[in-house]
């Protein structure tokens, strides 16, 4: 007899069948009388369980921690341990998908950017329509705020198309300092090399066969495939683009991110003060203008503000 429930049954047996008092039966069993008379008070109303199952049906790839964030937003005051018990009783566990075994080598932590637009990551994800036609998705992520900046889907994405899409992003958002990508043919094409040279962008290529060096975009691609691509059938490219746009909006503004303290990427980006180089000319203008003259070309001996603290 180990659990309180079993000991409670033993005490009831001694009292009913052997005529012992509750005090003596508890002394023989070694059971506390306070535990014997304790009555559990469950505050798990049906509304909480139904809301949790409803969220789990909509967010099929979310675990109980991320669902807990959504319940807190809905003003449900529930402890994470009690929520996990309900989550387990309702059998809402996320099914793990099998993956191939990978060799474990030497791993080095990847430096985290300190400001938005300091470093972007670019990569491709492939999928297919219901009629079997393949299409590709160009994903762009800000490594600091974890915002998904673009999800471009098409049957073919050349280097020139990638350059045009990035140029459009530069107009809507400030130009990044560095862009990280793999050594795919689209990123090593003459169009991208010319584009990076003209825009004065530091384009960094990871080592061949080392996707962990581009871990931010690889992690995002995993979430994209697990939560959307593996859960959705795309009958047409128009449907795929509309679904990707809706998921991107939800990812940036609604989905809590564990590495951002369960904030959304959009909410985390708003915590940064506006950069000096993005001060508009007037309240009606959104064109960024510099607040100082461009530095002269060549090496300078002045210590940078980042090193000076």
List keywords for this structure.
7 strands
H/E series, N to C? HHHHHHEEEHEHEHHHEEH
Distance from N terminus to C terminus (CA atoms, Å) equals 63 Å
- Largest sheet features: 5 strands, mixed
Dominant shape:
elongated
Strand proportion:
5-15%
Q: Report the mean per-residue pLDDT as an integer.
A: 82
Write up what this structure looks like.
Helix 1 packs across helix 2 and helix 7 runs parallel beside helix 8. The radius of gyration is 28 Å and the shape is elongated. The chain contains twelve helices and seven strands. It has 309 residues and is of the alpha/beta class.
Topology:
Blueprint: H1 4-18, H2 22-29, H3 33-36, H4 46-58, H5 64-73, H6 80-89, E1 119-128, E2 134-142, E3 148-154, H7 159-172, E4 178-181, H8 190-199, E5 202-205, H9 215-227, H10 237-253, H11 265-269, E6 279-280, E7 288-289, H12 305-308
Parallel strand pairs: 1-4, 4-5
Antiparallel strand pairs: 1-2, 2-3, 6-7
Helix pairs in contact: 1-2, 7-8
Summarize the structure.
The protein is built from 12 helices and 7 strands.
